[in-house]
Amino acid sequence: MTSNVRELRPKPPESEKITINLGYVDLGQVDLMVQEGFYSNRTDFIRTAIRNQLERHADVVKQSTTRKSLDLGLRHFSREDLEAARRAGEMLHINVLGLASIAQDVTPELARAAIASVCVLGALQASPAVKAALVDRTR
């Protein structure tokens, strides 16, 4: 039986993959903690260590986020958002700590007409053409 259900929009990934290099001794200690059952795997250890550090410095992050006027979390910009800004004669300044995404139906021309600057601490999801069109406005 064939299904008539199809996904209208692919679900974006909820995390970004990063690569780190560790010294052999540090890696061995991580493996020992996993072997002893403190963590389920290396990734669990690394995520926990990162979360602990972020929690430890939460006040600094909060102050910097406020000072730099960053949107915290997920921020999506649709074609309609950009068209409305263009109609109003405004240019958007995208400042996000987390994930900023620009809809797949946004053309490079519309992006250049509506977006003045892009500063993302985290990840930016947009079509390769839109990213290329905004390369001189991205820091």
From TrEMBL:
GO biological process: regulation of DNA-templated transcription
Protein name: CopG family transcriptional regulator
Listed CDD domains: RHH_NikR_HicB-like (cd22231)
Origin species: Bradyrhizobium retamae
Highest rank taxon of the organism: Bacteria
TM regions (residue ranges): none
